[in-house]
Amino acid sequence: MASIIFKRITAVFLTCLLLSACGGSDKSAENDKLSVVTTTGMIADVVKNVGKDSVQVQALMGPGVDPHLYKATQGDLGRLQRADIIFYNGLHLEGKMGEVFEKLERIKNVVPVAGRIDVSRLLSDPVYKDAHDPHVWFDVKLWSSTIEVVVEILSNEDPENAAFYQQNGKDFNTELQLLDNWVRTQISTVPLDKRIMITAHDAFNYFGRAYNIEVRGLQGISTLSEFGLKDRVDLVNFIVEKQIKAVFVETSVSQKNIDAIIEGCQQKGHDVIVGGYLYSDAMGAEGTPEGTYTGMVRANVNTIVKSLR
Amino acid sequence: MDAFYIITVSTLIAISCGILGCFLILRKMAMVGDAISHAVLPGIVLAYFITGTRDSIWMIVGAGMLGIFTTFLIEFFHKKARLQTDAAIGVTFTWLFALGIILISVFAGQVDLDQDCVLYGEIAYVPIDLWITESGQNYGPRALHVSYIVLILIVLFVRVGFKQLYLTTFDPAFAATVGISVSLWNYLLMGAVSMTTVASFDSVGAILVVALLVAPPATAYLLTDKFKYMLIITCIIAVIISFFGYYLAVYLDGSIAGAIVTVAGILFMLAFLFSPSNGIVFKRYLQKKEAAKLSQEPAQ
Predict the structure, then answer these.
(1) Which of A6, A20, A183, B169 is least surrounded, with the fewest CB atoms within 10 Å of its CB?
(2) Residue ranges of the alpha helices (H) in A189-292?
(3) Domain ranges of chain B
């Protein structure tokens, strides 16, 4: 009796498998362009600028997606497998997926662009030195060091175009140096004592370090570490004391916590406004200026400067 | 091969979870899987404090310990405090989850540490999450190995202890009189549940595991009154939902876990409506037939 049932279940299972084996026929890439998949839009932007027409780039995390909460779809899996090269951020930005990539490095061309940055240039937890802040892209100089990695990997994979990639990398590097200077001049128009940025999520620590702005986050790096009541009171007192005019909301994180702070300040008779929306973990929609890395940085800096000055 | 790996892993895990789920729903403890998914948080945090890494293996060890501790606490509150099982489950997992959050915010505010990013896997990664040794030897998807080992252990456990599990589920008082230790078998079952859930969280993610523990057994429950048939139907449902769920996800280009759970929900609705023994439609039909008979009788 039991063995018959077992056989039937196995039969059903095997039939299903057979059907599934017939279904999938992979389309091979119809052109000889390098196919590159990246996790965040920021990395895709670097690859686009280095590879231009000779690579086909796809970012898994679209506009407005929080990398911490991203879940891969069936299509993403196919994209990852068909890719010649996979670039990801590393430093645990992608959570569990990063761990999968780490192992995949042994058999496939998978590269953590931020993971290649020298450890001495990274911010880390005061207690756990090995836990680095993964949000490296808002320090433009630091981010420009990823260009080198992308150029190297693309050149290895496609040596014929190596000179082309090197030239593009150089151009983009110059563009980022200009951007870095522009950010510095913009920020310098804000008086030193006004350079305090309050945001919902700690994605701006590198930005703060690079451009000499004090950054206060409303929650820890982990989306689970809630803001304590005392932290909230401290922050409200801090805002009132320093007469800070604006706080910032991020496009990929909820506004709830910031609203609570604004209300707390109003009760103390200090009006603070939402200075605007900042791009933090994801870029703007494709086709808009904010859909590129440089556009996103410019938009953020403009928002910050306008409301703090 | 992707389809093959994903459907196989999903099926194997669905069968493991389904078999345990059959016992759980009859013991009114179906949501213990959900409870474990939250209650493992302090285990993860402590494992991180001790080892200083976020490698899966240590996270699983920490989560596994807390999983067992959770089921132990639930059983303890239920037994000693005479709390209903659902209340015992609710108190235990919310308390442990809260403990985890406090640990994170006090000691590791700058470290990205939660189940979502260090423990829960995603079934879409099964074909690329390979077991590769340092020397580059590729043994195929890691989750595949995990899932058949778990299934073998669960089948062995249920096969060896079937009589004891069966009796302690349906008639604990009788089981006690014939000399079966009710609490021992409760703890063994709960241990098996926490091992299975934690290993499966790592392979395929939390929501899928929680759903697989409940939905297929609940559907099977509507279709039969015999426990053995319930186990068998659960296994068949496991195969069906994995297969159709995967292709629904392909068709929609959506989350695979989401699609599998959706199919499981649809099957449950169908069973709810059309089950020969308990289905709404069939019951209505019987009632009408009965009513017609009654109204005809005086005329005869």
Answers:
(1) A6
(2) 205-211, 229-242, 256-267
(3) 2-295
